[in-house]
Amino acid sequence: MGQQVDAKREHGKKAMPGPGCISILLAAGCRQRLPPKNVYYYRCPDHRKNYVMSFAFCFDREDDIYQFAYCYPYTYTRLQHYLDNLQRRNMDYFCRELLGLSVQQRRLDLLTITNPVPPTSKGKK
């Protein structure tokens, strides 16, 4: 009980603008974010000066199951630019359809990614 854990993750040589969002999901379905003061992002000499993200967390109940998730910040605008670029390439296996707009008037897309070549059934000639 009250055990503190320092989990580390190596992030290659590229610098990230900063840590993303780390969420905790408890067994009871409760989800919360780690406070930024408990998340550390730095170059580590022990890891050939690669960037390392670590965080501190206290497990307060032994019988609970804790799950940690990391999400790098990805903006809606960046996603739209990426999807626009894919759409302009006219790839056979990529289809983007507008389903509607959100309350904020943002696109709600249906993306379909398939094999461009239909599967051949065995035994048919």
From TrEMBL:
GO biological process: proteolysis
Cofactor(s) annotated in UniProt: Zn(2+)
GO molecular function ontology, one term from the record: metallocarboxypeptidase activity
Domain (Peptidase M14) ranges: 72-125
Family: Belongs to the peptidase M14 family.
Protein name: Cytosolic carboxypeptidase 6-like
